Amino acid sequence: YTPDYETKDTDILAAFRVTPQPGVPPEEAGAAVAAESSTGTWTTVWTDGLTSLDRYKGRCYHIETVVGEENQYIAYVAYPLDLFEEGSVTNMFTSIVGNVFGFKALRALRLEDLRIPTSYSKTFQGPPHGIQVERDKLNKYGRPL
């Protein structure tokens, strides 16, 4: 947990609703989400000593209590763009939400919000035949897909 971390315009910012297991402090739960969804692992990896992971790690920089909900918190996590492959929505989402939802220190976890820097979102190509073709296939108009 790094409350003194100042987010950058290039960070991907995520807000997770976190319900820690009994006895797990919210700061520890938030830090664990940040680590597990970026560079952290509970397994010893032989490549750990080859590079400094500090520039790639996610950082939980703020925790808020959810008003009216017992033992629920919003954990704000910043991820550096260097962690993600350009142009790959799949890579971004599997990194952020792929493995972390089975994390045992948490009773429940939900991604509430995600802010993606414009510079990164411009690397996504979009549908190969254009948005209108996708809307026609799905018969969905006048709203987000």
UniProtKB/TrEMBL annotation:
<dbReference type="GO" id="GO:0019253">
    <property type="term" value="P:reductive pentose-phosphate cycle"/>
</dbReference>
<keyword id="KW-0456">Lyase</keyword>
<keyword id="KW-0560">Oxidoreductase</keyword>
<dbReference type="GO" id="GO:0016984">
    <property type="term" value="F:ribulose-bisphosphate carboxylase activity"/>
</dbReference>
<keyword id="KW-0113">Calvin cycle</keyword>
<dbReference type="InterPro" id="IPR036422">
    <property type="entry name" value="RuBisCO_lsu_N_sf"/>
</dbReference>
<keyword id="KW-0934">Plastid</keyword>
<keyword id="KW-0601">Photorespiration</keyword>
<keyword id="KW-0602">Photosynthesis</keyword>
<protein>
    <recommendedName>
        <fullName>Ribulose bisphosphate carboxylase large chain</fullName>
        <ecNumber>4.1.1.39</ecNumber>
    </recommendedName>
</protein>
<keyword id="KW-0503">Monooxygenase</keyword>
<keyword id="KW-0150">Chloroplast</keyword>
<feature type="domain" description="Ribulose bisphosphate carboxylase large subunit ferrodoxin-like N-terminal">
    <location>
        <begin position="3"/>
        <end position="120"/>
    </location>
</feature>
<dbReference type="InterPro" id="IPR033966">
    <property type="entry name" value="RuBisCO"/>
</dbReference>
<dbReference type="InterPro" id="IPR017443">
    <property type="entry name" value="RuBisCO_lsu_fd_N"/>
</dbReference>
<dbReference type="GO" id="GO:0009507">
    <property type="term" value="C:chloroplast"/>
</dbReference>
<dbReference type="GO" id="GO:0009853">
    <property type="term" value="P:photorespiration"/>
</dbReference>
<comment type="similarity">
    <text>Belongs to the RuBisCO large chain family. Type I subfamily.</text>
</comment>
<dbReference type="Pfam" id="PF02788">
    <property type="entry name" value="RuBisCO_large_N"/>
</dbReference>
<dbReference type="GO" id="GO:0004497">
    <property type="term" value="F:monooxygenase activity"/>
</dbReference>
<keyword id="KW-0120">Carbon dioxide fixation</keyword>
